[in-house]
Amino acid sequence: MDLIGKTLGDFCIKEKIGSGGMADVCRAWQTQLKRDVALKVLSPQLARHPGFRERFAQEAQAAASLNPPHTLSIYDYGYAPPTGLTYIAMEWSRGGILANRIKGPMET
User: What is the CATH number of the domain that holds 49?
Assistant: First the structure.
């Protein structure tokens, strides 16, 4: 799905940085707090099914309850009418994607 330039809540999507089976991940700008965030957007096809929306919400809640040093903070979870898109906003990590980082040693 083409999300570039769309606004979901307080987040303006700048670029797509990855995708998976359930969602696309984008770099977005949070306008009120003036910061980059990673925005995970649930696929519109899956968002039509309440079970997937519930799973996505549970993922946001579970991730928000974590606080180890190597996890990203969850900033927001929401639904953006009229687009019908559901998203999780989280801390933006400039260090690259995890798949690339775990190929070598990680700093502690």
Answer: 3.30.200.20
Q: Which SS3 state, helix, strand or coil, does residue 11 take?
A: strand
80 forms beta bridges with 85
Residue 59's domain comprises 7-101
Residue 50 within any structural domain of the chain: yes
Name the one residue in this structure whose structure tokens are 């990590």: 93
pLDDT single digits (tens) 19-68: 988 899 999 999 999 999 999 999 988 888 888 889 999 999 999 998 88
Q: Please state the pTM of the whole predicted model.
A: 0.81
CB contact at 8 A, 25 and 40: yes
Distance of CA 97 to CAs 41, 78, 100, Å? Answer: 16, 23, 6
22 belongs to a structural domain: yes
Sequence-ordered list of residues with C-beta below 8 angstroms from that of 86, at least 6 positions apart, any chain: 41, 42, 47, 53, 56, 78, 79, 80
Whether the CB-CB separation of 9 and 86 falls below 8 Å is answered with no
